[in-house]
Specification:
Blueprint lengths: L1 H23 L6 H12 L3 E9 L5 E10 L8 E12 L1 H5 L3 E17 L22 E3 L1 E13 L4 E7 L2 E6 L6 E7 L2 E6 L4 E6 L2 E5 L8 E6 L2 E6 L5 E10 L4 E8 L2 E9 L2 H6 L4 E9 L2 E10 L6 E12 H4 L38 E12 L5 E12 L2 E11 L2 E10 L4 E12 H7 L6 E3 L1 E11 L3 H6 L2 E8 L2 E4 L10 H9 L8 E14 L2 E12 L2 E10 L4 E10 L14 E6 L4 E4 L1 H16 L3 H14 L4 H11 L2
Helix pairs in contact: 9-10
């Protein structure tokens, strides 16, 4: 017992002696040495205003007004300035040569990170890297920061940013060479960013995270972020984001609640554990329900970004999507009442020559199935139960089996794209709907009743742009409409449409009958090397006449040339049989026009003159001949199959 007292007394004496030594020890005499060693390590001037030693069982070194000079080309003399640095150490381990830093506290930190026009950053020091072997073990248990101002400038990219960080606490453990982060919390971060075309302001509220494992692996087990706001201005317009809650649990449970540009934004479900999410070393599963910008999305996918080429597979379901609401308003698309449509400028092209982003096909792989319960196109047309399978691999896209319900009918399509050949292939079939439903959906009220429609398109092309693809297009477009009733006065509603102008001009009874009964209509173009040809393949048969067209559409030159031949089918013709060459639709696709053949017009006027001279007898006889000619054969059936008979 007496021996223990003696030992205890010796320990007290040693500690008291050490305390006396530390109390009388002038650490400031080593300031010059510390500055010189820091300069040798960084190649920059390091200044320390003052050094003090705080005495306790956890002695602390306090440094004030510490700065590191900037690169010679920097915009300011100092790269880093800290008002106060306090590092506490544990006394007993220190006596054994084990440096354990209990806490490091920083106050008033101002840092400047910048990149010059040649792309060199100021945080890269021009000194050789030295090995850290042989240095005593150094551990640290915590870091506290009160006030951080970070400025970032990139002269090469033309970018500027500033970060203000509020009070921050970091809990750590382990040797500095393999430091482990266990807890982080901060209250208040503000980030300002701008470049030549955009700017953003980010405010992050109270944030905390728990983690385990080395910092290099960043094994975060839980992340919670308080109210966060983002204000962004760029070429796409302003964006305001406000997150009331953002939390990812260790098991991957996700909860997000906020608003984007005034619209709710929510997310819930599960994702990979957050540590795996950050490491990105293996495929990441995600089963989430999202709500943003008026959209609801259910995603059950697996994303793999661990390889050079990212890949995604799974199913994405969108109950309802209106593309018109996703697009910015087009002032030119809203006609002014009573105003005439502006004519396109000479040389205006329909098909864009902008390069297509073929390279995107090799940027990722996918095996996705996209489901849309209701998809509204920009023109107002609605598709339901839309299924789009997307398989992308090695720069080749296969979207076979696309399907959608349309106006009570069904649309199916196969789409293929090959990046290496810049090749496109599209097959599309639509049937089971009516012209009446189509007109109603497009807000063209009471234009037509009934009129079952079918359409088949099969085309292929190659090129850098849509214009190039159309210039070399091959394939066919065949469609038809069954019996319908067209309201005559409605033809004038669509006066800007040259086809409707033609129908209105050719309708001999348009001023007397409210409706024209269309027996059938057919469109049949065969496309070879960018030229769409038809030989009596454009047909409209009514109860009083039929109209047959032959000609071509040059997709490369964007020119239209169609000859129109009308014939009377019932009643007394007004010389329609003599107007065979009197009508042509021609000109550029951007502004086609209805033309009159002067020779055909003179011939028609002669027929009408003879009718007046004979009291209508010649006209009656001529009408009978036209009727007889029109009644031979099925014009619509011939129009559908003319290309087969040519072979």
């Amino acid at each position: 017992m007496k021996a223990l007292k003696i030992i205890a007394g010796v320990v007290v004496v040693v500690i008291l002696g050490l305390v006396v030594f530390l109390a009388t020890f002038d650490v400031s005499q080593y300031k010059g040495l510390i500055q010189d060693q820091a300069k040798a390590a960084t190649g920059r001037e390091v200044k320390i205003g003052d050094i003090k030693l705080s005495i306790s069982l956890t002695p602390a070194i306090v440094l004030s007004d510490v700065s590191i000079s900037n690169a010679s080309w920097g915009s300011k003399p100092e790269m880093l300035a800290v008002k106060r640095i306090e590092a506490g150490t544990q006394l007993i381990p220190l006596l054994q040569g084990d440096v354990r830093i209990s806490d490091v506290a920083l106050k008033g930190v101002e840092a400047l990170l910048e990149v010059n026009k040649s792309g060199k950053p100021n945080w890269v020091f021009d000194v050789p890297q030295t090995s850290s072997s042989g240095t005593p073990p150094l551990t640290i248990s915590g870091l506290k920061v009160d006030g951080v101002s970070l400025t970032y400038k990139d002269a090469q990219a033309g970018q500027d940013a500033s970060v203000l960080l509020g009070p921050t606490v970091v809990k750590l453990r382990g040797d500095v060479s393999a430091l482990e982060l266990t807890h982080l919390e901060f209250n208040g971060v503000k980030v300002d960013f701008k470049d030549k075309t955009q700017s953003a302001v980010l405010n992050v509220g109270e944030t905390s995270l728990d983690a385990k494992g080395p910092i290099a692996q960043l094994g975060i087990t839980q992340l919670t972020v308080g109210e966060t706001t983002v204000a962004y201005k760029g070429q796409g317009g302003p964006v305001d984001l406000n997150l009331k809650a953002f939390k990812i649990a260790g098991d991957g449970a996700v909860n997000v609640d906020g608003a984007l540009s005034g619209q709710p934004i929510k997310a819930s479900g599960t994702i990979a554990p957050i540590a795996e999410l950050i490491a990105m070393k293996k495929p990441i599963p995600a089963k989430l329900s999202l709500e943003a910008l008026g959209l609801k999305i259910d995603a059950d996918v697996v994303a793999d970004v661990s390889k050079q080429k990212p890949a995604i597979s799974g199913v994405i379901t969108v109950p309802e999507l209106d593309l018109a609401k996703m697009m910015p308003p087009d002032p030119a698309a809203a006609p002014v009442k009573g105003a005439k449509s502006a004519k396109p400028a000479p040389g205006t092209k329909v098909f864009p020559a902008d390069p297509l982003p073929w390279a995107l096909l090799s940027s990722a792989d996918s095996d996705l199935k996209l489901n849309f319960g209701k998809l509204t196109l920009p023109n107002g047309l609605t598709l339901e139960n839309v299924v789009v399978p997307v398989k992308l691999k090695g720069g080749k896209l296969d979207a076979d089996g696309i399907g959608a319900n349309i106006l009570g009918g069904r649309l199916t399509a196969d789409l293929g794209l090959v990046q290496s050949e810049k090749r496109m292939a599209l097959k599309l079939n639509a049937q089971g709907f009516t012209a009446e439903k189509l007109a109603s959906e497009l807000k063209i009220t009471d234009l037509v009743t009934q009129g079952p429609v079918d359409m088949a398109l099969d085309v292929k092309g190659q090129g850098d742009s849509v214009r190039a693809i159309m210039a070399g297009l091959n394939g066919s477009v065949i469609g038809g409409m069954g019996e319908s009733r067209i309201r005559n006065d409605a033809l004038n509603i669509i006066g800007a449409d040259v086809i409707m102008q033609l129908l209105s001009a050719l309708n001999p009874m348009g001023n007397k009958d409210p409706y024209t009964v269309a027996r059938c209509a057919v469109i049949n173009f065969q496309v070879v090397n960018g030229v769409a040809n038809t030989d009596k393949g454009l047909v409209l048969v009514t109860d009083k006449m039929d109209v047959v067209s032959t000609g071509k559409v040059d997709l490369a030159q964007e020119q239209l040339d169609l000859a129109i031949k009308p014939r009377a089918t019932t009643g007394i013709s007004v010389g329609l049989g003599d107007l065979t060459q009197s009508f042509r639709i021609g000109g550029p696709l951007a502004d086609p026009g209805l033309k009159v053949d002067s020779k055909g017009a003179v011939k028609a006027l002669g027929t009408l003159g003879a009718a007046f001279a004979t009291g209508g007898a010649s006209l009656l006889a001529k009408g009978a001949v036209d009727k007889a000619e029109a009644s031979s054969g099925d014009v619509c059936a011939d129009a559908r199959t003319w290309h087969l008979k040519k072979k």
